Amino acid sequence: MTAYIIRRVLYSIPILLGVNILTFVLFFVVNSPDDMARMHLGMKRVTPQAVESWKQERGYDQPLLFNTSVPGFAKLTHTIFFQKSLKLFQFEFGSSDSGRDIGYDISQRMWPSLAIAVPVLLVGLLVNISFALLIAFFRATYIDFWSVVLCVVMMSISGLFYIIGGQYLVSKLLHLVPISGYDTGLNAAKFLVLPVIIGVIGGIGAGTRWYRTLFLEEINKDYVRTARAKGLSERVVLFRHVLKNALIPILTGVVVVLPLLFMGSLITESFFGIPGLGSYTIDAINSQDFAIVRAMVFLGSVLYILGLLLTDISYTMVDPRVRLS
Amino acid sequence: MRSRHKAGSGTLRWMLLWVGACLLAACRGSGWNNPYPVSESLADTLYSSFSERPKHLDPVRSYSENEYAFIAQIYEPLLQYHFLKRPYELVPLAADRVPTAEYYDAQGNRLPVDVDSEQIAFSEYEIPIRPGMRYQPHPALAKDDTGAYLYHHLDPAFVDEINTLADFSETGTREVTADDFAYQIKRLAAPWLHSPIAGVMGEYILGFTDFGKQIAAQNQALQMEGDRVSYLDLRPFQIDGVEVIDRYRLRIRLHGKYPQFVYWLAMPFFSPMPWEADAFYSQPGLEKRNISLNWYPLGSGPFMLEENNPNLRMVLAANPNFHGEAYPHEGAAGDREAGLLEDAGKPLPFIRKAAYSLEKESIPYWNKFLQGYYDTSGISSDSFDQAIQISGQGELGLTDAMVEKGIQLQTAVNSSIFYMGFNMSDPVIGGDSDSARYLRQAVSIAMDFEEYISIFANGRGVAAQGPIPPGIFGSRSGPDGINTVVYDVQNGRPRRKDISVARELMRKAGYPSGRDQETGKPLILYYDTTASGPDDKARLNWMLKQFEKLGVQLVIRASDYNRFQDKMRNGTGQIFMWGWNADYPDPENFFFLLYGPNGKARFGGENASNYSNPEFDRLFERMKNMENGPDRQLIIDQMVEILRHDAPWAWGFFPKSFALYHAWYMNVKPNLMANNTLKYKRLDPVLRSRLRARWNPPVIWPLGVVGVILVISIVPAVLLYRRRERSAAR
After folding, report:
1. Per-residue pLDDT for B20 more than 70?
2. CB distance A134–B55 less than 8 Å?
3. Chain B within 8 Å of A74 (Cβ-Cβ)?
4. Which of A246, A300, B433, B512 is most enclosed, with most CB atoms within 10 A?
5. What is the pTM of this model?
6. What whole-number distance in Å separates Cα of residue B258 and Cα of residue B205?
7. Is A175 in CB contact (< 8 Å) with chain B?
8. Is A100 in CB contact (< 8 Å) with chain B?
9. ipTM over 0.90
10. Would you say B676 and B80 are in contact if contact means Cβ atoms under 8 Å apart?
């Protein structure tokens, strides 16, 4: 197992390097260092000297990937890519182009994102599995049919509709919770109720339908028939046998998204005024802050790789037949 | 098995606890949907929002409206605009009086005030500073018993424990002196601080540019020494044109005559800055923790930044050391009747706190305003129909729903212009040939900006007759102010010329029916724009339609803003739309956008049309140095006529701002020049609390209905389950 993990970690280095290069190239295809300087210096009365000085101070006066004006290895090291992007491998995010410490901002903004994402994941899992089990229990009845229809309808509706509709109904018409905002500590709860409920409801359609499929696949297997033949009730068969075995793909599906919970949700956070990481990257792209863009893309890639690794590991833990080699 | 059961019940317990906490928190207080603490219900706190976090709060850098919304309440420049009087009038703020210029020739001899500006080599402003002004409590000014600064030599281990400015237990203050204003002017010149006005000030303040070079060299030397303290103390260095006469007097010397200089003195660039601020914030480790002057201002104004979390909320609180100021005793005509002088003479500020929440989306923002949780609001196009109705006479007013809530509307024509520019260096549409001029005039007539305002701005704008917005000296109203190149005068009002006039101009230009009369080929013009999304399609179609009236084929060249700016800088655009927001209420600030030596392509200035007319430039140079009066108006009229004739712009429109505010929000008068108006605002928190409670009663019965529906829908499932359990195996 240890050897496997080390190998996977080593594999991730070229992947991250590739992601870094791709982000770098894509960013600088759209924005030049001059554009970045102008964006940060403002629109009015910006002199060419101020632009040059801004670039020089932040190291954007060097060539992007290859410096022909210096000898030897410095051709690679005296470049924006080397100076800016490779430090990320040490998890040194540095400062944003507007001067704020990126690591600090991430550490501050990940908690509000988690405050929504974790309850949505847990409550969503509970609700979706319960509904899926219920539908599986009533398989091939009108309840099954109409539940699947409802699931398809629910998953066809845009997430934005749930958000705007939820805000309209719960906050504007019923006046039950604040329409948007955030606070710290226990006071955050009243701001989280609605986004969490909407997040759960928005995920019911797709989640329930997927879990129903998993349960129905299990229900037709031999061991379930054997359990029924033993005279066990359908409830016991479902909860004690089917649920346990169907949890393997469910668990691995959950593990892969766990690290990405940190990254937050752009639309939810924007509409509910939650100061999470979801809008951090988009704001940075809009303000042409390359330092934040590269840090967030790198972090997202690392978390994704971590999620895949955890998934592989979780397989061995929940299914003894699987061995990593 | 037991441990698993335990873990499951533990999770369940946590979830129940979480839901319970949510409900508990939601049920506290009268308004369940109140986003603010119940304890603040009756507090003198203003609630507002911001949609984009401010980039800079250092007065040396800040130059945008969203930054001024905060720092103009914190910093006190030398002058300010009178809150009520119109036309806009400068009055003292940190200065004891509005300074007047004294003029000198090259030999240093004093010249009379009315001397020809050609003879003036230097202007001198002696500015008396108001005594007794003190800075807000701040750790940079904290001293121990011996008088030594407590936090100017921080230990790295101590810095590691610091996360915000509030983590410094001690604060201090001191009096604002003339040295602090001189220090701030030095900061304006510091190249590493990137002040946007360094270029302009370099042209006028004596020795400003040389000073900048000198300290840049010193700073570089300091960096190369690898000194731990990378902070360059600017106090030992002097700018030739800035002299501290004594503790309360400052003298600023300018090249030539520059009457607009006093307007700059009313902007936060010219606020006092204690040297201690730089000494404190430049210590290693603080910037890494986002503790910098850019994020934690140090001012002497009526408010100070109590909480700075630009990802969530920014809170201004009354500055306990504020020197005091009284609400104005006089205003413009009609202000007394409007109740704007009821607070005359009362001490400012009225509001003790102002909380600004980050609100990125317009829907929740608008709904929170309607619920009474924001005191004021703009009107987005989404909510325009809900707020504004147009009467049979075409007048805009509030809808019944707004009136019922006691919401009031304030409108004002902005001191800004949104224009269509023609690149005067373009071979087809530019230049001073008759053909090109006729073409530009024809396009100016065809571009129906009245229709544009009606469709795309919900009527919030006034079609421009020239470059100067109403309310700025030089702008003429009535028949005298009508652009007769584009409009006919009908009953004293402008009426856009018939399209046949434009077609005739096209014929004279050599493009009858939009075709080149020599080659017979259709005339193709290019419109450079940043509008490329689906939302912009209607706008672009409208634009095509305007040119089709002339038979001209318009090609839309959409690009992102960076590329658009590149085209403007290189002078490769042909037709474009752009805007300008005035820095100060002087016609010079609009005419300079068309002054030849400010051409963008050749000189990197703000003249994006690259317009150059020697006669206009000559008049501009005369006009900019004149005091407001009939002589100046005469020259302005000539300049406007030249521009209308040459048509380097199709004049576009002056946007109109609409602001809504609740009945409990008082002393509201649009002031497009002043940004420090928060101190004049007054609230009635008791009325606000009462109305909020009336508007937001929790409606619980639908939850019961949902519960009943759920139960009813479960019954058949339970019955089916029982029947199945009892039936024989299949």
Report:
1. no
2. no
3. no
4. A246
5. 0.87
6. 10
7. yes
8. yes
9. no
10. yes
